[in-house]
Every structure is written in structure tokens, then in C-alpha cells.
Records
---
Amino acid sequence: MMQGLYTITENRPLTTRVSRLRLRGNTSAATAPGQFVDVLLPGCFLRRPFSVCDAQGVDLTLLYERVGKGTELLRELPSGSELDVLTGLGNGFDLSASGDAPLLIGGGTGVSPLYALAKALVAAGKKPSVILGFANRADVLCEEEFRALGLPVTVCTADGSYGVKGYVTEAMGGSYSYFYACGPRSMLRAVCERSTTSGQLSFDAHMGCGFGACRGCGMPTIAGNKRVCKDGPVFRKEEILWDA
């Protein structure tokens, strides 16, 4: 974990609710796709956690959804503003289990950490495919960014306004060696039930500290209650106790 000041170089809306935030600073602690950062926002007591979408050189890219006071304040900050950020949080995805043709499944802003994962898998010589799920066409994120990596991308929309009509599970019929998923809890459970292989899931949770001290983000697992911020946010499919 590392704490530092980061300068906003871009804070741009991508949809009516989701924005892209680019920060400049020390990214050396962001060592694995799937990790997250904890941002201290002006006027807020608790930091806000955000998955790392990309970390390259001194540039850190995050996607965030406007859901409350903190993200409302964040959306108004101009380029040049400084933010206090904790980086290098969480365990990240394990690439060693992926096989040659992993499947990446993202729902909503859950597509964010999968972009960094896709880059890492491609760099390792893997051939991932991608399924992205959204409510409607206006909510679609990162499709072109994944395609720019040379990956096959299937987009699903719940209302059928773009791509495959329905949820991401509608597009999981192909062959894949492993899966990685990030999105709403209901989506993650459905993906596990539909999947034909093992996989890893990245969970979102309300966090107090972001590094395991407050124990406020418990996750029921076969090994007892674990902390999403410290023991996760990535867990193996077989670990989760969905009904606990």
C-alpha cells in the first residue's frame, strides 16, 4: 500500500452516470490487475474505493459511477485538482489459472478492472474473449477499448437496444478455459451457476478503511468470513458461500 497526492488530468463523463478519471502520480504500487485505490474526497470523512482500470507509467485510470455525495463531488473536480490516494490495495487477479482462452465477463462499471486484466493476459500470450453487460445502449462502456486490444467482444443489453438481448449469461455458451468476472453480486452468482469452468470473481463492497483494519466488508466463504478489501476483492468461484 502506498499513499500519495495525485493530479487529475482528465475527469470526463462517458455516460449520464459514469465518468473516466485519469490521475498522474506514483503508480508503482499498482502491481496486479484487479487491485483498487481508495480516494479521499473533499468534504468526505471516509475514502471511496475504485477499481483500477489501467495503470501505465505515471498515469492511473479509474471509472466511477455517480451514486452518492462522494461521487457527486468527484464529478465536479476540474483537471489540475489534487487528490489523496491510497494505491496498491487488494489482491488482484491470478493470471496463472487462466489457461489459453479465458473469458472475461463484466457488468456495468465492473468492466473497469477487466481492461487491465485483458492487457495483462494479452501480454502473457493468452487469447481472452470478452462479454460486457449493461442495461441499455446508452450505458455501454469500454467496448472499443477491448476491441482495440484485438479481442472478440460480445455486448449484452437487458432491454435489447444493442447487441445481444438479455444478461451476460445469455452469451456464455461458447468454449473457454477459465473465467474472470466483475459486476453486481446477482450477476456474479448467475455467472457461477452458468459457468462450465472454475473462475475468479471481483466483488464490490462498502468499505470503511480499505486495508482490513475495520473488518466492515465481510464476505462469507468456506474458510470463514473474509474481508473484501484485504483478502479480496478477488475470490475464487469455489470459495463463496452465496446463501450464508
Note: The chain has a mean pLDDT of 95.
---
Amino acid sequence: MKKIYILILIFFTSITSNLFARSEQIELTYLDGSKVKLWMDVYKANRSPAPTVIVLHGCGGISQDHHFWGKSIQSWGFNSVVLDSFSGVANGNVCDKPSLSTPHQRSQQAYSLASWIEKQEWSDRKIGLIGFSHGGWATLIASTKELRSLYPSNNMITAVAFYPHCDNYFIRTHKRDIPLQIHIGDADTWTPALPCQTTAEVWDLRDNFYLYKDQHHHFDRLNINTITDGYKISRSDPVARELSMNRTKKFFDKTLK
């Protein structure tokens, strides 16, 4: 009987071990040769090797919502790596001090992390990126031909940006180089939707730009309803969250597998 219990425990452990993240620190390298040590959480898919999605949080740092995304992506059959871009850099928040960790730096962090991921036994070398707000801005930068040309051996092949800051000058002077999907609410007062509509037109996103009616910043979050600086509304919506997650899953299924 004791042997049976042991076998059951081994079986249960084998099928559930990948459901939990493994936290570890990694040293990433910027293009100028400087380095930074950051923490990340790795959620491994139940199959190995598998494609991997890097998750980039917003200016407020890591929250349970980013781990919710990491676990959801894992349930779709991908590895996910939730990177804490501000660990050891900005004490978890750059909303009021954006120069402490810029979107350009974070896009380089993503490519350096991708280089590490490619060498792992659980990676099939296909890598995607998903970013939110400040991380979504970094995702737009990471999707350009100008940055990707500096990482010619890298296998970052697809990206999704949620309510990013869309800089029209940057968009018009840079070319999109990989499949990209953008999600944003038409009532967003943190990162207005109109510049992102222009981005979708200039970068020819066609069916991969989603504008959510009456939705605010952080509409995909589990439970938030706040106002910052008197006008910046953050409000979750379960219907918009589910719809955007389904669209993201279909996009990664198409572009990453």
C-alpha cells in the first residue's frame, strides 16, 4: 500500500510540477555592453520543448495580473517567462521616473532574455512577446526592423501589445518586422487610442488591431477600478478581458506554433 501511495505522489508531482513558476535571477546585456540582473518567473508548458512567450509588465511593475497572464499562456501550451524589468533598477515602479528604465532598454532586455531562452532544453527556439502599457511600448519597439536587425540570430517572431504608448513619429520612421497585434480601449486616458489607430494604419496591421468600446486602461486586469491624477482611469472588464485573451491565444496559435 505504501508503494502505491508513493507512485501516486510521483505521478501527481509529474503532472503538476509545471503549473508553478520557477523564480530565478538572470543577467541581461544591453546593446552598449552594460548588464543588469533581473528576476523572472518561468512557467513551463506540459510539453517540451515548446514555444515561449515573454511577458512585460507596465510602469507600475509586476502584479498578480501578469502572473495570471503567465499561467494562462502556459495553459495554452506555451512556456511563459514573466520578467520583472524593474527588479534592482527602479524598486518596482517607473511611472513617475520613466528615465530609470526606458521602453528602449526594456526591448533590449527582451531580446537578451530571448537569447537565453533559446538555449534552454524546454525551448523550441520560437519566441513571442506580450507587453502591457509601458511594456506594450517596449513591445512595439521590439517588433521593428531597426531593432531586430541588431539581433540577427534571434528567434523573436511575434508580438502582442496591450494599450501601449503609440508614438506616431517613431511609427512613421520605423518599420514593423514581425506579426503584431494591438489591443486598446477607446476610452483609455493613460495611453490614448487615436495614435494607436494611426499605428495600425501605418504598420498595416489590418485585422490585428482591436479597439474596445467604452474600455479603459487595464481593462484586462482581474480587479481594478482606480483614478490617478484625477483623470487616468484604470478599470477592469471581464467581458473585454476574455475577448482579448481569446484573440491573443488565436494569434499566438497562428504565429508561434
Note: Confidence is low (pLDDT under 50) at residues 1-18.
